[in-house]
């Protein structure tokens, strides 16, 4: 009996510590990449900074809730298209912020002496990502 209580407490502590570590990593990633300040700067909407922060928090909590619950969300295709578009926008902003911070592509193109092909290189990455995502979704998920 005491052994089960101890194991349950240990599991709870491990789960809490793991969640805390993942949450801190997510916040650190958003902070280092500066996604929200960059979004505010590009959209010239500094007056909505609390809305951006609230949207990130609400989205994170809602995503966590959906991940750990048995709720299925059967919606019309239009709603799922909108939902997928929001996911794509977020992932695109995350990738763009990471690229902007690291300056990977300009450094790569200078080192390989392909400066004139930088735009084509970026478009190849974009189309490759889209094609891979569609392939994964249409072939593996839709069974």
Features:
143 residues; mainly alpha; 0% strand; extended
Structure, explained:
By secondary structure, the protein is an all-alpha fold. 83% of the residues lie in helices and 0% in strands.
Entry summary:
With 143 residues, the protein is mostly helical. The protein has six helices and no strands. The protein is extended.
Number of discrete helical segments: 6
* Oligomeric state of this protein: single chain
Structural class: mainly alpha
Mean pLDDT: 80
What's the main sheet like? none
Q: N- to C-terminal separation?
A: 45 Å
* Cα gyration radius (Å): 20 Å
Fraction of residues in helix: over 70%
The coarse silhouette is extended
Strands, total number: 0
Unreliable stretches: none
SSE arrangement, N to C: HHHHHH
The amount of beta strand, in percent, is under 5%
List the SSEs and their pairings:
Blueprint: H1 2-33, H2 35-43, H3 49-68, H4 77-102, H5 104-111, H6 118-141
């Amino acid at each position: 009996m005491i052994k089960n209580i101890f194991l349950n407490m240990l599991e709870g502590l491990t789960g809490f510590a793991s969640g805390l570590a993942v949450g801190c990593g997510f916040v650190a990633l958003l902070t280092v990449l500066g996604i929200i300040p960059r979004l505010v700067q590009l959209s010239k909407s500094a007056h909505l900074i609390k809305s951006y922060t609230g949207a990130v928090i609400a989205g994170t909590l809602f995503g966590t809730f959906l991940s750990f619950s048995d709720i299925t969300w059967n919606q019309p295709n239009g709603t799922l298209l909108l939902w997928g578009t929001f996911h794509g926008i977020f992932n695109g902003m995350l990738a763009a912020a990471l690229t902007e911070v690291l300056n990977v592509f300009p450094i790569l193109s200078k080192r390989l002496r392909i400066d004139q092909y930088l735009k084509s290189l970026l478009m190849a990455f974009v189309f490759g990502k889209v094609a891979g995502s569609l392939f994964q979704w249409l072939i593996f998920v839709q069974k």
